[in-house]
Amino acid sequence: MEEMLDTYTRDGKYLGIKTRSECHEPNPGFYHKPAWTWIYNDKNEILVQKRSMAKRKYPGYWDMPCAGHVEAGESTVNGVIREAKEEIGVDIAEKDCEFVFEFIEDSAWEIGQVFFVKINKNVDEFALQEEEVDSVSWLNFDDFKELLYSDKWIDYDKKYKDMVVEKFAELFKSRQSS
Length: 178
Fold this sequence. Notes:
Helix content: 25-40%
Distance between the termini: 48 Å
Oligomer: single chain
Low-confidence stretches: none
Shape: globular
Number of strands: 9
Number of helices: 4
């Protein structure tokens, strides 16, 4: 059965439920809200995933560790929790999900809900969903920025990438001073 997604106007007014395929038509005229999750650890490293070669879009490219559609009736936080369990095999508590910002991606008709989650695990402790994720790696901030802006990273809007870098810089700076 096809995924059902809540839909919205660009300014966030709820419109109703549509199928995933309806949401992904060219110019559907409404938006949906995926959950985009970034993971960091106590060493101020950022987890990245290499997408499976079986993926239809951007196979073998680097990407954020977890991302996915929020199902109809599901909160974005519950979407974060579900996707983390499915894609990298980790259990996340709701209290550990920090909403960071919202990013409107007009070309994809998405209102991305961006979250940070702190997890302290070695890469071999993640249980990867083979059809989604080939591997994960921890990167220090400088190496992360270099990869994020390279042609090996999935093609996200530069403004989105800049916002992610800015929010991680703020987070890591605040952690150093505390």
